[in-house]
Amino acid sequence: MTDATESRRDGSTRRTVLRGLGLTAAALGLPGLAAAEGDGRGGDEGTERTAEPYSLPPLPYDYDALEPHIDARIMRLHHDEHHKGYVEGANAALDELAAMRESGEFDRIKAVKRDLSFNLSGHLLHSVFWRIMSPDGGGDPGGDLASALRRDFGSVEGFKREFAAAATGVEGSGWGLLVYDHLAGRLLVTQAEAHNDLAVQGATPLLVLDVWEHAYYLQYENDRTAYVDAFWNVVDWSAVDAVYRAAASARRPAESN
Questions:
Q1: Does domain 143-256 have CATH number 1.20.1440.230?
Q2: Which of 209, 115, 123 is nearest to 167 (CA)?
Q3: What is the chain's pLDDT, residue by residue, as a tens digit (257 residues)?
Q4: Which residue, of 51, 107, 139, 256, is most buried by count of CB atoms within 10 Å of its CB?
Q5: What is the location of CATH 3.55.40.20 in the chain?
Q6: What is the required cofactor set for this protein (predicted)?
């Protein structure tokens, strides 16, 4: 396989993934992420792109707003250091890709594409994570989302049990996710190791929970179960419902070709 063929196939796969993430971003008011398609800089199959580099979005609330469930120390470190690092890593990967296109030398393409996948996925998931939490969160979902959860998991409590088990059981570092699968038109609970491994291609993330140790260790130490239990107190179900309605109303990938 040539470098050009691999690059085209990689770009096609990434656009499929970002289509789902773009629906999430648009529903949560993150237009910069919604537009994140292609590599952000340089050409894409002959079409020049002028998108700005990725940037760290501000928290939509104060660092201490989610206390006592997630304390201010964690939020400051998590957002200002860890999330910022993923933004910088994604932009560095874009710079390397632009340099490769300029020079015509693609000997590091595999490593740089891996860096882009890891860092950009981390940036996207964290951007969603901040927005689906709120100091006024908690309780149970209602409306269309609640109906869909009952349809696909038997009950809202059944969904919560499955999600908590998946998030708690992530091997090493990663995420628990509720996603909308456009192919089947249904909800799924999935895991992601790191930010990008085990991902369901093209699915739209609705509810995401970071279970890397940096997300909870300062407060909960090694008790991930207690952290996952506390998470339900800050979930902004209205935000999750908005993403669900946007995803459910979108055409399936095969119908948009």
A1: no
A2: 209
A3: 444 444 444 444 334 444 555 666 666 666 555 444 344 444 343 334 445 589 999 999 999 999 999 999 999 999 999 999 999 999 999 999 999 999 999 999 999 999 999 999 999 999 999 999 999 999 999 999 999 999 999 999 999 999 999 999 999 999 999 999 999 999 999 999 999 998 888 899 999 999 999 999 999 999 999 999 999 999 999 999 999 999 998 855 555 44
A4: 51
A5: 143-256
A6: Mn(2+)
- For the chain, residues classed under CATH 1.10.287.990 are 3-43+69-131
Residue 211: both structure tokens together:
């279970």
Tell the residue number behind the tokens 């995401």, with chain if given: 208
CA distance 244 to 238: 10
Top-tier CATH class for 3-43+69-131: mainly alpha
